[in-house]
Amino acid sequence: MSEQTIIRETFEKGKGVFRLKPVFVPRRFGRAGRRLRLHPDDYYALGTKRGSIKERWFSSVIAAMNGPLASPDEGMSRVAADEEGTRTFLLRDAVLELGAALIGPKLHAQYGMWPMYAKFFDFRTPLFHHLHLDEAASALVGRAGKPEAYYFPPQLNSHLGSFPVTYFGYDPDVTREQVRERLLAFECGDNRITELSRAYRIELGTGWYTPPGVVHAPGSVLTYEPQWNSDVNSVHENIVADEVYPYEFLVENCPEERKYDIDYIMSLLDWEKNVDPHYKRHYFRPPIVCPHSDERHTEKWIAYGNDYFGAKELTVHPGQTVTVRDEAAYGCIVVQGHGGFGGFTAESAGMLRFGAMSADEFFVSEEAAKAGILVRNDSRWEPLVMLKHFGPNHPQMPKSTAP
After folding, report:
1. What strands, in cross-sheet order, belong to the sheet with 310-316?
2. CA–CA separation, 23 vs 9, rounded Å?
3. Gene3D superfamilies this protein is in (predicted)?
């Protein structure tokens, strides 16, 4: 049987809903937060040279930019074609085969592919101060720009790590020359560049939007990150939690001839956004309750106010069943409770083995989303909670922050 036939049969059997297999991604830097619900023995499942596993990716059609030891499909989501997940195919291949029937005619016409992904980002220590490149700078190295959003789910944050504070941008009084001097000192000693930044204590149940070109140093809280289909950055901080980062981290997404051009490196900054005196007003994202919420369920927008992606948190209260409708395709991850999702069993993960199947991640076609997914909470006591990530075409996504 051809893969095309398997894709179409799986799509029809799930009535427009795919069940996805967990995808865990190692990183060679930082320390694992160990909140991904992965078995303790599996954090080095790909070997110590790859570093510990610190991320789980959702609805991904792109590979992680993870060095020469990574497999070509690392980070890419796979659809389970059978109950045990022993037979799978790439979500990317399903989009190529099904096209508008899966992601909807608007996204397919505009992008030809599912344009975003989401992940859990899980570091015990803070991450380096870095920025993501915009579309123009990314195009010079054959990649796409990367805006991203953050949401801090309480269900996965019983422990907040060593530094639950995130830096964004630079203080409004900081000058370009001050930043330039710190970057020129990247190989000379600790450049302590976050001394020029602004820090915000992380509030669980809230989030932020981070445009390309804005430096940020995420804190040590497990973070749900909807983002554009890219994995490009420039690291401005050279020593974090006693870990030293090489110069290549600063320039790995610069054209070869510009890697020692400080003016080019500085040009990757969106200076006005970095020194915005009202940064929190413009980019903080408190949850917005959807008007269709009722005594059976509550739905909130948790990522919104941008042109790239959105996300919701759906809570179905104990013992309740609801039909949930959306006007766009989406991926989702169950973070609490158990019950049903369409024709599938749905349950949050307690402890997963690397490479094993789960019942907590799905991808919903646009037609199935519009028709409505029956979501059932089988618990008498616990809510059933899931996070849902969309592309830029959900018509109900708020365009600005809550008043």
Report:
1. 88-90, 78-80, 17-21, 361-364, 330-336, 384-390, 310-316, 297-303, 288-289
2. 23
3. Jelly Rolls
Give residue-wise pLDDT tens across range 31-65.
999 999 999 999 999 999 999 999 999 999 999 98
- Rg, the chain, Cα only: 21
Quick one: which of 212, 150, 211, 76 has its CA closest to 389?
150
Question: Helix, strand or coil for residue 368?
Answer: helix
State the Cα–Cα distance between residues 150 and 155, nearest whole angstrom: 15
Q: How many CA atoms lie within 13 A of 148 on its CB side?
A: 28
Q: How far is CA 112 from the centre of its chain?
A: 21
CB 125 within 8 A of CB 241: yes
CA distance 260 to 86: 48
Count of beta carbons in the 10 Å neighbourhood of residue 282: 14
pLDDT in the model for residue 403: 46
User: Between vectors from CA 33 to CA 28 and to CA 39, what angle results, nearest 5°?
Assistant: 90
Per the CB < 8 A criterion, the answer to whether 254 and 264 are in contact is yes
All structural domains of the chain, each given as residue ranges with its CATH number in brackets, are 23-79+88-283 (2.60.120.10)
Q: Where are the alpha helices (DSSP H) in 81-128?
A: 91-98, 100-103, 105-111
Task: Using 70 as the pLDDT threshold, list the residues of the chain that sit under it.
Answer: 401-403
* 388 three-class SS: strand
User: What number of residues does the chain have?
Assistant: 403
Say what the pLDDT of residue 1 is.
84
Sequence-ordered list of residues with C-beta below 8 angstroms from that of 189, at least 6 positions apart, any chain: none
Q: What is the dihedral of CA 245, 246, 249, 251, to 10 degrees?
A: 150
DSSP 125: S
Closest alpha carbon to 397 in 323, 332, 297, 328: 328
pLDDT for position 231: 86
Q: For residue 118, give the 3-state DSSP assignment.
A: strand
Phi (first) and psi of residue 274, to 5 degrees: -65, -35
Q: In whole angstroms, how far apart are CA 184 and each of 199, 237, 249, 250?
A: 23, 11, 14, 11
Beta bridge partners of 18: 363
Residues 337 and 383 sit within 8 Å (Cβ to Cβ): yes
Q: What is the pTM of this model?
A: 0.96
